[in-house]
């Protein structure tokens, strides 16, 4: 696990190499072993200097999140003691009196990078793929091994802000430019350079501040900048954090955090407080401040929810944990896309970037060419940003065949249909494509709402028919919802998942139903926004409450983006299908809004520049002023900051989140979703559901199932059946159960 070696020159090398893991992590076993090796080196008089490095391709990935997820957080005092040991260990390596070098051979993140920061000299192997940084904020935590104290003391608060507050990764060259590492050398020279620095004669003798009066000077290379007399924090005149520049920095920083996060994430606020308080204290006191804030975040359910979903949930999804076993992996080289509109062209764009040949089919050559032009424009953006060179761009575009000829699909391994959201149009495209496709090819529909089983009726090979629901814009949205029809074979599901992985998207698997999971829940969110509008809640209040609840946009803005006329068509199709089946159509109660906007006012959304918002030529969308004419606002809610308004705002935020959570549970109860984790991953990655909750299902656990049911019952009595909780949730409340009470993440490879 930790290899320890002392050479004939008195240089000790501590090599991290945890067996059975692809990457080293900080856990109880590895830290105990590391502490033992470090102690041996410090106590051995023969050891003149210490190198810490890794026997793997990467350095250390950070803390073992499985360990953090399983930590008992009930006793804050015990947690403080537990995590202060990490601080003491890292502190011991920089105050042990022996110079220490981090030989960084690959990616070092989180606690792995903090080990490096606690050494006296840092050398990195030249590798453009190496990532250095502190990503803890992305999972609701802060660096707990001294990162909030060492980084600002090395490079100043302004330079530290993106690393700590945004979790921004650094290349080795960027880290060197900032002053976080000292040298970048060829990989083959890494250890030799580290040893050479240790073997060089000491340039100075220094009495560290921690040593006290009368202490003997030691090798200056073994003393950190903050342990030297007269150290000043960079960026502040005289090093005074409390001076005018410091005050302006932290006031501006807090305003920036508020603006970017709407105050809903505890971690950025804690990091800012930690840095501000810690920099005004002696270094060791600053470390205690950091530990206190780390423990407070770890005890907050936000962190565990985010870790569970945004790390383990995503990891399982991207590793295809739901893939049917014993099905050979499908290697893709050529695919077809039917429909060259925004969705089809977007699917083609991400596919060609993954190295695939593309046949892009549309009714007319002009339409197909327009789709190819979209692909070219997207690739040009990457060239402009320096992420793609011109030669590779041209080679990718050469892989795209734009044509009206369905015969060109003859050697495609999968075809994705992305034509107009109409059952008849899709059926026609299916039949034309299958006439040319190989018999074993997968046929996938990108429908957003139409049941896959029904669409498969047009197919001569329903076993090969599946749903692949992409999200707009395809180039940016990471999720693909895979929908299994009643006749879809396990082999087809496995091959569809292989394709999604090939194009670097995250899949969730759901069973067939109208709207599946994401479109259904998205519709619930939009409909609740419509209800609020009809109730007299000002449109701006609806939109802002959604954002302050954690949603990326409000329901009215989202409806504009997906197209109001599409919502109307989906509703109309559902009504017709119900009538055809002899069933009563159960609508949302907001169909009148859709009819008004589409049929009477011809406001279709962003697509025609007119929706709940206006889209003027200057590019700054604005709420349509005449909304107030059609939906008069309650005067009491237009102005002021009274208790009534604040209570209403809290209620609106709750309604917009709870309506989605309830519908997600309905999807679980009806087996559309097969497990809670897919609901959480899908709600965040596909719908933008408030990430601080960990997802729509995790929100219920955060609130508490019993309390959530009680609050929904109250909302149902007041606002309607959309808040009526399903039997599954009522039974869980009665039994005192939760969705993740016994959650065990999959073991990391």
Overview features:
alpha/beta, 749 residues, eight-stranded mixed β-sheet, N-(1-d-carboxylethyl)-l-norvaline Dehydrogenase, domain 2, globular, 3 domains, 2-enoyl-CoA Hydratase, Chain A, domain 1, 47% helix, 20 strands, Rossmann fold
Account of the protein in words:
With 749 residues, the protein is an alpha/beta fold. The protein folds into three domains: 2-299, Alpha-Beta Complex (2-enoyl-CoA Hydratase, Chain A, domain 1); 334-516, NAD(P)-binding Rossmann-like Domain (Rossmann fold, 3-Layer(aba) Sandwich); 519-735, N-(1-d-carboxylethyl)-l-norvaline Dehydrogenase, domain 2. Helix content is 47%, strand content 11%. The protein contains 29 helices and 20 strands. The strands form five sheets. The protein has an eight-stranded mixed beta sheet with strand order 13-12-11-14-15-16-17-18, with helices on both faces. A six-stranded mixed beta sheet has the order 1-2-3-4-6-8, with helices on both faces. A hairpin with a 7-residue loop joins strand 19 (613-614) and strand 20. Helix 25 packs across helix 27 (696-703). It is globular and about 95 Å long. It starts with a strand and ends in a 14-residue tail after the last helix. The model has no long low-confidence stretch (mean pLDDT 93).
Task: Briefly summarize what is shown.
By secondary structure, the chain is α/β, with parallel strands linked by helices. The strands form five sheets. It has an eight-stranded mixed sheet with strand order 13-12-11-14-15-16-17-18, with helices on both faces. A six-stranded mixed sheet has the order 1-2-3-4-6-8, sandwiched between helices. Strands 5-7 form a two-stranded parallel sheet. Helix 13 packs across helix 14 and helix 27 packs across helix 28.
């Amino acid at each position: 696990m930790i290899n320890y070696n002392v050479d004939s020159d008195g240089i000790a090398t501590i090599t991290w190499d945890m067996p059975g893991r692809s990457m080293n992590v900080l856990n109880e076993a590895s830290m105990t072993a590391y502490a033992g090796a470090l102690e041996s080196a410090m106590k051995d008089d023969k050891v003149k200097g210490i190198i810490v490095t890794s026997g793997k391709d990467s350095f250390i990935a950070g803390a073992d999140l499985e360990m953090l997820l399983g930590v008992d957080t009930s006793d804050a005092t015990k947690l403080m003691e537990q995590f202060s040991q990490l601080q003491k260990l890292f502190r011991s390596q920089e105050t042990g009196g022996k110079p220490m070098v981090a030989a960084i051979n690959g990616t070092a993140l989180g606690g792995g990078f903090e080990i490096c920061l606690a050494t006296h000299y840092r050398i990195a192997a030249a590798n453009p793929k190496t990532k250095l940084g502190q990503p803890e904020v992305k999972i609701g935590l802060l660096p707990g091994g001294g990162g909030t104290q060492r980084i600002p003391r090395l490079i100043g608060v302004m330079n530290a802000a993106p690393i700590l507050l945004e979790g921004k990764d650094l290349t080795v060259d960027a880290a060197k430019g900032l002053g976080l590492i000292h040298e970048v050398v060829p990989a083959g020279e890494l250890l030799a350079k580290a040893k050479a620095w240790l073997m060089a004669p000491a340039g100075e003798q220094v009495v560290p501040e921690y040593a006290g009066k009368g202490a003997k000077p030691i090798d200056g290379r073994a003393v950190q900048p903050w342990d030297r007399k007269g150290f000043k924090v960079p960026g502040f005149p005289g090093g005074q954090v409390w001076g005018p520049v410091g005050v302006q920095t932290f006031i501006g920083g807090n305003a920036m955090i508020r603006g970017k996060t709407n105050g809903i994430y505890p971690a950025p606020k804690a990091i800012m407080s930690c840095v501000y308080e810690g920099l005004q204290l002696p270094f060791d006191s600053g470390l205690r401040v950091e530990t206190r804030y780390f423990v407070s975040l770890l005890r907050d359910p936000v962190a565990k929810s985010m870790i569970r979903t945004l790390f383990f949930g995503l990891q399982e999804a991207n590793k295809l944990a739901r893939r049917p076993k014993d099905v050979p992996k499908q290697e893709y080289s050529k695919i077809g896309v039917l429909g060259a509109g925004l969705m089809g062209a977007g699917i083609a764009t991400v596919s060609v970037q993954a190295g695939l040949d593309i046949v892009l089919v549309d009714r007319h050559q002009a339409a197909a060419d327009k789709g190819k032009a979209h692909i070219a424009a997207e690739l040009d953006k990457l060239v402009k940003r320096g992420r793609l060179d011109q030669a590779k761009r041209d080679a990718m575009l050469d892989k795209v065949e734009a044509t009206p000829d369905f015969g060109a699909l003859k050697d495609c391994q999968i075809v994705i249909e992305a034509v107009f959201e109409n059952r008849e149009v899709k059926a026609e495209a299916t039949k034309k494509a299958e006439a040319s496709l190989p018999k074993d090819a997968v046929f996938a529909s990108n429908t957003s709402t139409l049941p896959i089983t029904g669409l498969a009726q047009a197919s001569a090979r329903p076993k090969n028919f599946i749903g692949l629901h992409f999200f707009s814009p395809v180039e940016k949205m990471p999720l693909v919802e895979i929908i299994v029809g009643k006749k879809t074979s396990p082999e087809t599901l496995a091959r569809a998942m292989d394709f999604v992985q090939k194009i670097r998207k995250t899949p969730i698997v759901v069973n067939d139903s109208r709207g599946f999971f994401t479109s259904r829940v998205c519709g619930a969110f939009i409909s609740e926004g419509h209800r609020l509008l009809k109730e007299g809640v000002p449109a701006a209040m609806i939109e802002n409450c959604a954002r302050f609840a954690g949603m990326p946009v409000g329901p009215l803005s989202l409806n504009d983006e997906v197209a109001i006329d599409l919502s109307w068509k989906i509703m109309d199709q559902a009504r017709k299908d119900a009538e055809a089946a002899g069933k009563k159509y159960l609508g949302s109660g907001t169909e009148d809004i859709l009819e008004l906007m589409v049929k009477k006012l011809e406001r279709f959304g962003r697509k025609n520049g007119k929706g709940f918002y206006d889209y003027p030529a200057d590019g700054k969308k604005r709420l349509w002023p005449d909304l107030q004419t059609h939906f008069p606002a309650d005067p009491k809610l237009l102005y002021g900051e009274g208790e009534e308004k604040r209570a209403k705002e809290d209620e609106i935020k709750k309604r917009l989140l709870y309506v989605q959570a309830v519908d997600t549970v309905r999807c679980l109860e009806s087996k559309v979703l097969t497990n809670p984790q897919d609901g959480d991953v899908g709600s965040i990655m596909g719908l933008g559901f408030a990430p601080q909750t960990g997802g729509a299902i995790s929100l219920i656990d955060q609130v508490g199932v019993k309390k959530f049911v009680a609050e929904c019952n109250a909302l149902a009595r007041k606002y309607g059946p959309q808040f009526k909780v399903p039997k599954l949730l009522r039974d869980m409340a009665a039994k005192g159960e939760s969705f993740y009470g016994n959650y065990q993440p999959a073991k990391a490879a």
